[in-house]
Amino acid sequence: MAISLVKGQKISLEKESGGGLSKVVMGLGWDPVKKKGLFFSKPVEIDLDASCILFDEKKTPVDFVWFNQLRSRDGSITHTGDNLTGEGEGDDEQIIVDLAKVPGHVKYLVFTVNSFRGQTFNQVQNAYCRLVDERNQKELARYTLSGGGDHTAMIMAKVYRHQNEWKMHALGDPAQGRVVEQLIADAVKIL
Fold first, then answer.
1. N or C: which end of the chain has fewer CB within 10 A?
2. Structural domains of the chain, with CATH
3. Interatomic CA distance for residues 163 and 153, integer angstroms
4. How far is it, in rounded angstroms, from Cα 61 to Cα 184?
5. What pTM was computed for the model?
6. Would you place residue 170 in the very low, low, confident or very high pLDDT band (cuts 50, 70, 90)?
7. Higher confidence at residue 148 or residue 27?
8. CA triplet 123, 124, 126: central angle to 5 degrees?
């Protein structure tokens, strides 16, 4: 059973997977708040974007994975594609990480979410990020991105190396930005 994380909580991914963890999927899901009309409610399209920033030990960004670059230069991380509306069930966007292929100089993987159109999180509901063991589809951890707010982005979580083990830290820190490059300064603060 997956751990339902709270802001600030850290877990060992190796322990949660039962060992042998090699690939994880970071899933992002959300629903737009329904716009209320006189006789019906219509969902407002919200274009959230999941991204991953790769940092080295000196906290310098070395690569990005996002809708405009679907694969890291080293091939260890892949984005499955951009969902422009939040419609549908399950994960709306996914980032697949082959932990064994992440280069040794990369210490931190910071997962972010931003509203490309500049809409705030007040217009988003049921938002979450989750980490899944790719080999058996077992959900290892889930973090609910709750609370709304006037921010257009969020630093969701970081996955990092600690003593030859991968760990996850749930963050949920609000930020402002419409694309991943605008979130670097906020991401560095949490390292």
1. N
2. 3-189 (2.60.60.30)
3. 31
4. 8
5. 0.88
6. confident
7. 27
8. 150
